[in-house]
Design brief:
It is a single chain. By secondary structure, this protein is of the alpha+beta class. Among the domains are: 84 residues, conserved putative lor/sdh protein from methanococcus maripaludis s2 fold, CATH 2.40.420.20; 86 residues, Efflux pump adaptor protein, beta barrel domain (Elongation Factor Tu (Ef-tu), domain 3, Beta Barrel); 61 residues, Orthogonal Bundle (Helix Hairpins), CATH 1.10.287.470. Helices cover 28% and strands 38% of the residues. The protein contains 4 helices and 21 strands. The strands form 4 sheets. The chain has a 6-stranded antiparallel barrel. A 5-stranded mixed beta sheet has the order 17-16-20-1-21, with no helix packed on it. α2 packs antiparallel against α3. The chain starts with a helix and ends with a strand. InterPro entries: Beta-barrel_RND_2, BSH_CzcB-like, RND_pump_MFP, YknX-like_C.
């Protein structure tokens, strides 16, 4: 047998011996741990407790969010043409219906004149055909065809007039010109962006509330608003929207509308804090979430009866921060085990520690 083969066999045997030693050593350690646990279980389990009592619950909460403009609109061109006049610039305040720019209306005026001429011709044709129909010169079908031509000509005339009127581009809302996309002499076509107009007279603060908080909110409730930018000022807003469905994080979007001051100091994009002052609640019994066996959904807690733990059924209500409202199953004075339940069974010997 070759020397290399002998070395390989010896190495393999050594590996197996080492693995066997490790497994035997681990088994011994596990047995020692099991013996320690068994010895510990023979005595009382150390637990922490809390005496149940009614207390006032503070449901007021704050939520941070971002201010959004009441309206944020990008004005686009509806006709093709060259910009002949720009009446406003970035930062200017505009009123609804105010002319902000003008497009060359020469071609639009020609279209309107042609449409007007076609309409007049169609109108005379209808009058002539109706007169001939009375004498039997034309049929009813021919008269109806001329009336249809008149209606089409009238529609084309209205369209041409509308385009001519749209040569004066007007602001659809009141607000501040936040951005201008065009210059005098620019050629625009339908859909070309012209101006971005932002209405800051009112703002919307978008925040979220969890399920325990949102049930106490309703549209129209007043909310105190503060901003880090103006720490010495506070504003009053009203809840304008509460989502009917929670988001992916199980929170409910809430919008608070606020009237800006005369100087429009608050800007869209700033951070704000909403303080929700909720009605006072009657005193109720709560326990820490840790008191429940497994989870709140188990509806089970342990009560301390003398030196033993007694499994007890309760009916949980709202989860308020790290505590849970108890609707039924607990009375004032009951001693609830709030820590150490993982090692308990019904009737186990326990020792309360601080």
């Amino acid at each position: 047998m070759k020397k290399g083969t002998i070395i390989t066999i010896i190495a393999v045997i050594a590996v197996f011996v080492l693995i066997g030693w490790i497994l035997q050593n681990n088994k011994k350690k596990n047995e020692e741990k099991t013996a320690v646990v068994a010895a510990g279980n023979s005595g009382a389990v150390a637990v922490k407790t809390e005496t149940a009592k009614e207390s006032n619950i503070e449901l007021d909460f704050t939520a941070n969010g971002t201010f959004e403009a009441n309206q944020d609109l990008t004005l686009s061109a509806e006709n093709s043409g060259r910009v002949t006049r720009i009446a406003v610039d970035e930062g200017d305040h505009v009123s609804r219906g105010q002319v902000v720019a003008r497009i060359d209306d020469e071609l639009l005026a020609v279209e309107t004149q042609a449409a007007q001429a076609n309409y007049q011709t169609a109108l005379r044709d209808v009058e002539r055909y109706e007169s001939s129909f009375k004498t039997g010169g034309v049929t009813q079908q021919q008269v109806d065809a001329q009336r249809l031509n008149l209606r089409n000509a009238q529609a084309r005339l209205q369209t041409a007039k509308r385009k001519a009127n749209d040569a004066d581009i007007k602001a659809p809302i009141s607000g501040i010109v936040n951005k201008r996309f065009i210059e005098k002499g620019s050629y625009v076509s339908p859909g070309t962006q012209l101006f971005e107009i932002v209405d800051l007279s009112k703002l919307k603060l978008k925040v979220t509330a969890n399920e325990a908080q949102v049930v106490n909110l309703k549209v129209g409730d007043q909310v105190k608003i503060t901003s880090n930018v103006f720490p010495d000022k506070s504003f009053t807003g009203k809840i304008s929207f509460i989502a009917a469905k929670a988001d992916a994080n199980l929170n409910f979007p809430v919008e608070v509308q606020i009237s800006n001051n005369s100087g429009n100091q608050l800007k869209a994009g700033m951070y704000g804090t909403a303080t929700f002052d909720l009605p006072a609640q009657k005193p109720l019994i709560t326990v820490p979430r840790s008191a429940f066996v497994g989870s709140v959904n188990s509806n089970k807690v342990y009560l301390l009866k003398g030196n033993t733990a007694q499994e007890h059924k309760v009916t949980p209500g709202r989860i308020i921060s790290d505590r849970v409202e108890i609707l039924n199953g607990l009375n004032e004075g009951d001693i609830v085990i709030i820590s150490g339940q993982v090692n308990l069974v019904d009737g186990a010997q326990v020792q309360a520690v601080k």
